[in-house]
Write a structure and sequence with these properties.
- The chain is built from eight helices and nine strands.
- It folds into two domains: about 40 residues, no CATH class; about 170 residues, Muramoyl-pentapeptide Carboxypeptidase, domain 2, CATH 3.30.1380.
- With about 230 residues, it is α+β, with helices and mostly antiparallel strands.
- The N terminus is likely disordered.
- A five-stranded mixed β-sheet has the order 4-6-7-9-8, sandwiched between helices. A two-stranded antiparallel sheet has the order 1-2. The chain has a two-stranded antiparallel ribbon with strand order 3-5.
- The longest helix has 18 residues.
Length: about 230
């Protein structure tokens, strides 16, 4: 068979094959271009999938706790003054992105407990710190964010960003090794399965979005008590 006939036959076969692939399957892949111009299909199928249902649950948690969605910087500063929002402190195990504004390096106390615990466990495993990229936001800030980021959650409604209540943080994933990435997935999945967090790996923002329930404090105290009894 001539080279021309082989090329035509191959093209027809590939077109037919493409027609048989369901649209949902095609959407699970992203194209990655390599230095020689070849394109490799890389599966996007994270363990921690975001969903509209998850966003609804996050807002239901905010409503259960009767927390305000923080409207502007004046309301934010008042919550920081009354210590309803507490500062996220950098440690050997926890790094805060330098791009995060000083008055936005805050979260609810139980969310801060979660950060302390997870970062220490991560540091113990890998001897390198976790990084927080984002924490509390105002509705005013979220509205501005949506102007240049079409993937950002709205500032109102049942799918509104849970950052607005100070119970959510974004953890950086850029630069993670496979082992580090898998460890974070497993750690967050374990807490999610116990109803303590809502977690999603965000594709475009290169982070893990984590909303923390106030139930985390009771769970944490129970674990600490169990550890103390075990040591005695």
């Amino acid at each position: 068979m001539s080279a021309k006939k082989i090329l035509i036959t191959s093209s027809i076969f590939l077109m037919a094959l493409g027609a048989t692939v369901p649209a949902t399957a095609a959407s699970r892949y992203t194209s990655t271009r390599h230095h020689r111009g070849h394109i490799r299909r890389v599966a996007w199928n994270p363990v921690l999938k975001g969903s509209m249902d998850s966003m609804v649950r996050q807002n239901e948690e905010i409503d259960r706790l009767q927390l305000p969605r923080i409207a502007d910087n004046d309301q934010l500063l008042e919550l920081e003054r009354t210590q309803e929002l507490v500062p996220i402190q950098e440690t050997r195990a926890l790094h805060v992105s330098p791009s995060l504004q000083a008055d936005k390096k805050y979260c609810r106390p139980w969310c801060n407990q979660f950060l302390q615990d997870m970062s220490e466990a991560y540091f113990k495993e890998f001897r390198t710190p976790l990084q927080v990229n984002s924490a509390v936001r105002t509705m005013e800030q979220q509205q501005k964010l949506r102007r240049h980021n079409g993937n950002a959650a709205p500032e109102v409604g049942e799918h509104a960003s849970s950052h607005l209540a100070g119970i959510t943080v974004d953890l950086a994933k850029r630069g993670l090794t496979r082992a580090q990435h898998a460890w974070i997935e497993e750690y967050l999945k374990n807490l999610r399965d116990q109803g303590l967090v809502e977690a999603a790996e965000e594709r475009r923002q290169a982070c893990f979005h984590v909303m923390v329930s106030d139930r985390y404090t009771e769970w944490r105290e129970a674990n600490q008590l169990a550890d103390k009894i075990a040591r005695e």
